[in-house]
Amino acid sequence: MKQPLLRVRNLSKIFGPGCPRCAADTGPEAGTNICPHCRSVVACHDIGFDLHTDEVLGVVGESGSGKSTVLRLLHFDWEATAGEVMLYENGRSPDGGGTGFDGVNLLSLGSYRQRMIRNRIMGIVFQNPHLGLKMHISSGGNIAERLLAAGWRHVGEIRRQAGELLERTEVPRARMDEPPKHFSGGMQQRVQIAKALSNSPAILLLDELTTGLDVSVQARVLDLIRRLHREMQVATLVVSHDLGVVRMLTRRTLVMKCGRIVEAGLTDQILEDPRHPYTQLMVSSML
Amino acid sequence: MRLQEWIRSTDRSEGGCVDYNFAFLDEGAKREIRRKTLKAVAIPGYQVPFGSRELPIARGWGTGGLQLTLSLIGSSDVLKVIDQGSDDSVNAVNIRKFIESVTGVALTTNTLEASLIQTRHRIPEEPLNEKQILVFQVPIPEPLRFVEPSERETRRMHAEADYSPMWLYLYEDIVRFREITIGARYPVMVNRRYVMDPSPIPRWDVPRLHMAKALYLFGAGREKRIYAIPPFTRVEPLEFDDYRFRVESFEGRCCARCGARNTFLDEVPDDDTGGRTFMCSDTAHCEKRRSGEAPSP
To answer: Per-residue pLDDT tens for A230-253?
Structure first.
């Protein structure tokens, strides 16, 4: 079998002091992710999956099931309590778009190196554009920030790249020097996508990207993601509570509840023939 | 007792004040500042926190530079103090008088004679040598303060060399004004690692930080930080490949007193005629050229 790009194993995040019984007494069987003994919140526990190059992997679940936590851990925004995230670059050298950390557990690195890896191979789109964009700085500047972090030092080239990205994400190039606070929600989301794609990432993380947009704008953003994925072949992790989004974008899906993965498999299989009671409930509640 | 009376009443026959330690600070304080200075020299551009002492002048008036000077000075040193290039402005005169009264060292205005120079916002025009130390007075030691108000956050940014917000600031400046509009306090990269505030020196002086022979020390008394550029260290202003750093241009101007065309000039408005004249900011160098001691342009 082909080697994955990312291999995630035993990933856990506990907010609070934590105790030896945290893992056993939380989860879908217990129906909670708050430990009854030490009151710690087990945001996610024992998460394991593979992410392959050029695949789109979905993560679904209700609010508080730990989906976004997994994403934040992969993006090094939070420090994991336990677990490992192995990166496999198939021998790509740092000059060929690699990071030089082939076969390394990324969570064991220091924050300096993690930042470098994030700048070089990751892009993230948050549900709320306020988290991903600086609202008072021009849209072009927002994209430039990523490029500057990746070491670009030529204003003309930065502007050309930013303009191209904005065009690909259907933001008029003429509005490049306007701050995103002047834009509509859908347009802000597209600027965020352009920013995430600016360093040609190997891994794209999408966190509830269509939540809060109206349906016609949702459809266009999803179309955009599908088109970009076809063109750029980037490994994508889609976190959503919307089964429609997951059905449209992904081949494989993980279902999470109370910080655990309760079901994993092909997306259409999960939607047509859900096994876990929670997945069945979720699918039957679809509009 | 007022300070002036106290200074007058002191006996300077033994090279200092009777009631005070040599160079005002107690030996423990001097040792601490020297230790922090050594650390600063060892990590070029890194801001080292230190215990800023109370002095007879208020914080924000050069106490950082003054404490560095007082901790370094010995009785054989020759001291020069300048304020924006001038030996005669109030800040320079007061600091010079104070140091003289507590140490009794020799004073000079000649850059080449001085072993220790304390400066506010200028580097002397004449090149410094390996035996000289230049002490800067720094109002705001944190170069990232433009872009990030939180100290905790700026320390993290320095630790991780995360300078993209600073670069973004320069990029936005170019987008808005077609050039980088920072005048004094131009941020520099020291030894390819730390972004550093060179204190509010004009851009004119920035290239002279690079691979210099003298030791540059920076003291911020109010903000309690010491940092340094050791001799022969790479110091590069932040610039883009297509928008290079450039110094102030005095194209077509020269000093009204000495005629120099290759010095940093101050613009002096003339109230009577409404016109403007330009004069050397480094007054000692200007004076030398007028008397024929220094070479003509």
So the answer is: 888 889 999 988 888 899 899 999
Structural domain that includes position B288: 249-297
Which of the following is catalytic: B16, B45, B62, B64?
B45
Residue B8's pLDDT is what? 64
Indicate if the pLDDT at residue A186 is higher than 90: no
For the segment B29-73, what is each residue's pLDDT rounded down to a tens digit?
Answer: 999 999 999 999 999 999 999 999 999 999 999 999 999 999 999
CB contacts < 8 A (A, B): 43
- Domains in chain A with CATH codes: 6-284 (3.40.50.300)
* Contact flag B171-A156 (C-beta cutoff 8 Å): no
- SS3 string of chain A? CCCCCEEEEEEEEEECCCCCCCCCCCECCCCECECCCCCCEEEEEEEEEEECCCCEEEEEECCCCCHHHHHHHHCCCCCCCEEEEEECCCCCCHHHCCCCCCCEEHHHCCHHHHHHHHHHHEEEECCCHHHHCCCCCCHHHHHHHHHHHCCCCCHHHHHHHHHHHHHHCCCCHHHCCCCHHHCCHHHHHHHHHHHHHCCCCCEEEEECCCCCCCHHHHHHHHHHHHHHHHHHCCEEEEEECCHHHHHHHCCEEEEEECCEEEEEEEHHHHHHCCCCHHHHHHHHCCC
Is some CB atom of chain B closer than 8 A to the CB atom of A112?
Answer: yes
Q: Given an 8 Å threshold on Cβ–Cβ distance, is B171 in contact with A115?
A: no
Query: In this predicted complex, what is the ipTM?
Result: 0.80
Judge if B100 and B25 occupy the same domain: yes
Are B26 and B113 in a shared domain? yes
Residues B63 and B200 in one domain: yes
* Domains identified in chain B, total number: 2
Same domain, B92 and B20: yes
Cβ distance A155 to B159 less than 8 Å, yes or no, reads no
CA-nearest residue to A176 within chain B is B175
Q: What is the pLDDT of residues B220-240, one digit of tens each?
A: 999 999 999 999 999 999 999
What is this structure's pTM?
A: 0.85
Nearest CA in chain B to A115: B160
State the nearest Cα–Cα gap between A115 and chain B, in angstroms. Answer: 8
Q: A148 to chain B: nearest residue by CA?
A: B164
Contact between A153 and B240 using a beta-carbon 8 Å cutoff: yes
Is it the case that residue A97 has pLDDT exceeding 70? no
